[in-house]
Write a structure and sequence with these properties.
The chain is α+β, with helices and mostly antiparallel strands. It contains one helix and eleven strands. 16% of the residues lie in helices and 58% in strands.
Length: 173
């Protein structure tokens, strides 16, 4: 074997090794795994065919892979019956495809009809018309107060279920 043949073989081996290393680095370089995108004042809104309207906005958002983390969250939703439901929370994760928002930190849901729900954690499925509150749930309507470990609300705030340790202070006006 001549020196030229050995050189060609070594160049071929080196080229294959170089291409493999290049492919490995390229796949790591262009993957979205560790990329974070900060969004200033994100806002999402939609009006559905059934006349439901919602808007979710925040002071700041961070997009990581398929997850959008929100900070200082505000929102509003008009139910089928025309009632406006408002929300505030310190943090949230919004899945726009599923229309699901998971909230944490000083959560307040309230309506124009004097219903107010407070909790430490909540999830709000806009498509399913379902709000689930967890940890330190408090429902205030006028002077009446109901506290519970958990609560589920469906059907435009017309169907409310309380779970766990439930206490009620009810005043008839």
């Amino acid at each position: 074997m001549t020196a030229f043949d050995m050189l060609i073989k070594n160049i071929t081996k080196f080229s294959v090794l170089f291409l493999l290393i290049l492919l490995l680095f390229q796949s790591n370089l262009f993957s979205n795994e560790n990329i974070e995108i900060e969004i200033d004042k994100p806002k999402f809104s939609e009006k559905g065919l059934n006349n439901r309207l919602y808007e979710i906005k925040a002071e700041k958002g961070i997009q990581k892979e398929g997850d959008l983390e929100l900070f200082i969250v505000e929102g509003k939703l008009r139910t089928d019956s025309g009632i406006w439901i408002y929300l505030n929370a310190k943090k949230g994760n919004f899945d726009q495809m599923a229309n699901l928002i998971e909230l944490s930190g000083e959560i307040n849901f309230y309506t124009d009809e004097e219903d107010r729900f407070q909790s430490d954690n909540a999830s709000f499925s806009i498509n399913d018309d379902l709000v689930e509150f967890n940890n330190n749930v408090k429902h205030v309507k006028g002077s009446s107060i109901i506290t519970a470990d958990e609560s589920r609300i469906r059907n435009n705030f017309n169907h409310i279920v309380y779970k766990g340790n439930v206490s009620a202070f009810y005043i008839i006006d």
